Amino acid sequence: MDNGIFEKAFRMLEKHPLCDHCLGRQFALLGHGIENSERGRVVKLALTLKAHALFLSKDKGGVKLLRVLATNGFSEIAKEILKKMRRKVPSKKFPKKCFLCENKFEILENIVKKAVEQLKDYEFNNFLVGIELPFSVEEREDEFKAEFEVDYGENMRNEFGRILGKKIAKESCKSVDHKKPDIVVLVNPFTETLRLQVNPLYVAGRYKKLVRDLPQSKWFCSNCRGKGCEQCNWTGKMYPESVEEIIAKPFLDETGGEKASFHASGREDIDARMLGKGRPFVIEVAKPKKRFLDLKKLEKSVNTYAHGKVEVSDLKFANKNVVRKLKKAETAQKEYLVLVEFEKKITAKDLRLLEKKLSNVMIKQRTPLRVLHRRADLTREKYIYEVKVKKLSPKKAEIYIRCQGGLYVKELVTGDEGRTVPSVSEILENRAEPLKLDVLNVIMSD
Ligand SMILES: [Zn+2]
Ligand SMILES: [Zn+2]
């Protein structure tokens, strides 16, 4: 046997028992549209015919080759030929287990059955099979490939993954997706164990916060840090509820998920409302049992549950990238409306001055004193595009601000002891205090 792949295949079989899959896999890149088991079977068959021919021409190599095929090659045909020619057929102890896969390719049906059974608990569009192999198995294959200088081979992990993918797809009527599978079926063919890794479900939308004194996210009690104490009435929380919790509850009920994480593009202060079209958010549900949701219906459930405090709209299916985009968009333009009270009376001239000095201007803002305990002390520059002022009474005015996200609006009004420059107080030399703040809009291109 001196012709390339057949010679190599023979050397492999001479040294190790190999099943059709594992022999064929060493030549996986040769030929298209056939599985490795077919490759292995055909290579063994070709070798068997060659051996038979050698035997008939009285070449001693023939019997030797037939014995190798009958034992390490698990070939029934080779055994038959030996029997017919009245040669010693290798004992019943053969065939042994395949050196590389330990015959695990033969027990895949069991794994497929288990996988399909477990997948029944979930709604999903597509899946992917991930293979976990014992370290010793991978090492053994690597050494084998090095020993026989395998140039056209594939690794065992790939073959297990592909074959199981095809079988599970057929049984579950779902397709394999390599990029964004809903579920990853993690299989260890050697221990015959599997577990499902259910990928999160993402739903994007916008929320309005129609009331004040409602935090955006769950706010842990500062006294007990969430454990529950007398001060927080054993809730572990500073506020009984939050935008996050109000939205998450109906999502968890509907999907049967384990946990919901709330991502939003920036946040409003507890005492500020969020109006207009609402603030973009994404809710990420971990391990959802259901993902074929009627989002219109879900929107109604959330809004009913939220009871006029929060309102969601524009719900649509999203993905991880949308969360990333959301975080980046924190600096997107925002529109605010703030009700301001002045110490001294204001004039029409004052208001025009404010509009002029605060439109198209860069604000220098040091981290506000009120958040300094949890944020680094930095100076940020934020741009204001437009300011409009409306007088409501001799000492009260309503200020509309369209600015770069991240501007602290309350401090723009007060000046924060000189930490925000310029400010409403500073420009008019008249102490100004914000009474009410609303976010009107978060302008995000989607
Ligand atoms: Zn094998
Ligand atoms: Zn507490």
Any guess at the CATH architecture of the largest domain? 2-Layer Sandwich
Helix fraction bin: 25-40%
Order of SSEs:
HHHHHHEHHEEEEHEEHEHEHEEEHEHE
Extract low-pLDDT stretches. none
State the shape: elongated
Can you describe this structure?
The chain is of the alpha+beta class. The model has no long low-confidence stretch (mean pLDDT 93). It has four domains: 5-84, no CATH class; 104-198, 2-Layer Sandwich (VC0802-like), CATH 3.30.2130; 201-330, Alpha-Beta Plaits, CATH 3.30.70; 332-442, Alpha-Beta Plaits (2-Layer Sandwich), CATH 3.30.70. The chain has 14 helices and 14 strands. Helix 3 packs antiparallel against helix 4 (61-71), helix 6 crosses helix 8 and helix 9 packs across helix 10 (295-306). Strands 5, 6, 7, 8, 9, 10, 11, 12, 13 and 14 form a ten-stranded mixed sheet that branches. Helices cover 35% and strands 25% of the residues. The protein binds zinc ion (2 copies). Residues 221, 223-224, 228-229, 231-232, 236 line the site of one zinc ion.
